[in-house]
Amino acid sequence: xxxxxxxxxxxxxxxxxxxxxxxxxxxxxxxxxxxxxxxxxxxxxxxxxxxxxxxxxxxxxxxxxxxxxxxxxxxxxxxxxxxxxxxxxxxxxxxxxxxxxxxxxxxxxxxxxxxxxxxxxxxxxxxxxxxxxxxxxxxxxxxxxxxxxxxxxxxxxxxxxxxxxxxxxxxxxxxxxxxxxxxxxxxxxxxxxxxxxxxxxxxxxxxxxxxxxxxxxxxxxxxxxxxxxxxxxxxxxxxxxxxxxxxxxxxxxxxxxxxxxxxxxxxxxxxxxxxxxxxxxxxxxxxxxxxxxxxxxxxxxxxxxxxxxxxxxxxxxxxxxxxxxxxxxxxxxxxxxxxxxxxxxxxxxxxxxxxxxxxxxxxxxxxxxxxxxxxxxxxxxxxxxxxxxxxxxxxxxxxxxxxxxxxxxxxxxxxxxxxxxxxxxxxxxxxxxxxxxxxxxxxxxxxxxxxxxxxxxxxxxxxxxxxxxxxxxxxxxxxxxxxxxxxxxxxxxxxxxx
Length: 498
Fold this sequence. Notes:
Elements: E1 3-9, H1 16-29, E2 34-37, E3 40-42, E4 46-48, E5 54-56, H2 57-66, E6 77-83, E7 86-91, E8 94-100, H3 101-107, H4 112-125, E9 128-132, H5 150-156, E10 160-165, H6 171-181, H7 184-187, E11 190-198, H8 202-216, E12 220-225, E13 250-255, E14 260-261, H9 267-270, E15 275-280, E16 291-294, E17 296-297, H10 300-309, H11 312-321, E18 326-329, H12 331-335, E19 339-342, E20 350-353, E21 360-376, E22 391-404, E23 414-416, E24 419-422, H13 433-445, H14 457-475, H15 478-484
Helix pairs in contact: 1-2, 1-14, 6-8
């Protein structure tokens, strides 16, 4: 039977996901078999498991940190927003359809057994389960029937670490206010406070920490510095979407769709020295990139209408006429075709004209395609010819079926002229694909590109997990955390001893 530890935050984006990931890696280093768990995640970045089930990308990242295979039980409920007031509801990796927020608020009571079963499944397989909360446990309007914060801590009988974000200011008020708004039995579950994203001289902070501990009667078990680790983010809060960047040797523009999903597809490109990857939301921001990527989206028809109205589509088509290659992935791929139809009302019904860059049409279907894929690209022509024959791997997750205008099945990478499209998420992650792509774009631009590092993306991510774990070990009281778990003195076990 596994011991549990829960990481909650004073607000969204306090750093819960990364703290949970870092603890997963530390427990793995110390010889424990650890697993992440988040009962309910709201995210547009998702992943398909080997079994063809869908789960939130943050828990996949945490599973990678723990060096274990991601399974849907690590994230039994996934909400994928389709509008400001509704989401597609994924339970145990399968879509249950779309629900308005009010309807889901009533429905979620029925999901308590689902969460318990998922937790029990992990319980049987692992030594430590690191549970992540969502938002804040002190949202007093949402506390009834809570299935993601203190309700889960109680279900799992888990001690809680409460994480506050000092970078945005007011961290003492965040932590103290959250503790004070909790019921006495909830407050008793919080065994440690964590101050995250600290910059500067910690000695200046110490008097505040002493006062906080006196007021809350809970120890501060970590002051974690602002760490630059490059790991998967949660959706719209991701800082990478807002960053202003100076042009590198190769410049790639990603269209920032209103419901952009799986932008983790581009992290491998972003991590490459000499490559600038920008998220563009206004026509004037396109400038003159070497490649434009049209990413995945949770609302293909709605987002196509949006970029048609705000002038982004016109700018994209103008860039295409100027010879800039366009690469569409999943929903972005569907937009490049002639037509998208939705006879079953999957996205509200109706049909819409596409951008007419690829001779294909897409029909939305009620059943979602969910599978891992691998293979080799066939013959690729034009600007991206160097991708011919290269191996790829990733996963597909989409509601539509696309076929040529003649009704024929399409190759994995479909193209016409310098418009390219595919359904595969993670298409650039396989060794050599991103490098080949960037080298080709550089060659077209008349500049030379030689990667500074010859490491794979998997090796790069491993470095980031190790860096994260080291940062947490150096700045958190791991002895106190092991004590909370009833594992005092058992840190740094070897795999052999285990």
